[in-house]
Design goal:
Two copies of one chain form a homodimer. Chain A has 102 residues and is an alpha+beta fold. Chain A is built from three helices and four strands, in the order E-H-E-E-H-H-E. Chains A, B: Keywords: Monooxygenase, Oxidoreductase.
Chain lengths: 102, 102
Amino acid sequence: MRYGYFGSMKAKPGQRDQVVKLLLRSAEGLSTAGCHHYVIGVSDDDEQTIWVNEVWDTREAHDASLRLPETRAAIAEAMPLLTGEFTSREITVLGGLGLPPE
Amino acid sequence: MRYGYFGSMKAKPGQRDQVVKLLLRSAEGLSTAGCHHYVIGVSDDDEQTIWVNEVWDTREAHDASLRLPETRAAIAEAMPLLTGEFTSREITVLGGLGLPPE
C-alpha cells in the first residue's frame, strides 16, 4: 500500500523562500527513490509555513530516502532556517488521481 | 499558479470505507476538469477521518468542479455519511515532483 506523508514546517522570518528552494532542489532526485508525489506549497495568509505532501511506493522507500546523501545535505542546509515547528501525518494512500497504477 | 486544497473529513462510525469509495469514484472524472492530483488516504490510528489532497491548475478550475453534476451527486451521497467535521487549507503550489510542467 502506498505511503503518504503530509506535513508542514515553519521557516524563520524571511527564510521561507530559501527553504522552498532547497525542497524543490531535493525533490528532483526522488523519483528514482520510489517517490510519486512531492508537492510543495505555501499559503497567502502565513509567511512562514511550508506544506509538503508526499506519496511514496512504500513507507520503507520514504524512510530510506532520508538516508540518501543528497537528502541529508538538504536537511542539514535547511535546519538552521527553520523554527523547529513541524506537523506531520502518516497516511495509507487508497488511490485517486495523478498516481500511476500499483 | 497551481492551487492546492489539503483537507480532511470525518465519516460517521462504520462509514469511512463507503465515503472512500464515493471519493475514488468522483476522482475518475476530474482530470478533464483541470485536476492533477486527488489523493485519498486514511490513517491506521483513526477509523473515521479521510484525508484528501488535491492539486488543480487553478483555483477557478477547483471551484468549477464543485458545480459539476457528478460532483454534486457524490457530495449529496456522501454528506449523510459524514459527521460534518472538516479541515481544509488552501495552498499555492510552488512545484515539486509528480506534476506536469506548467
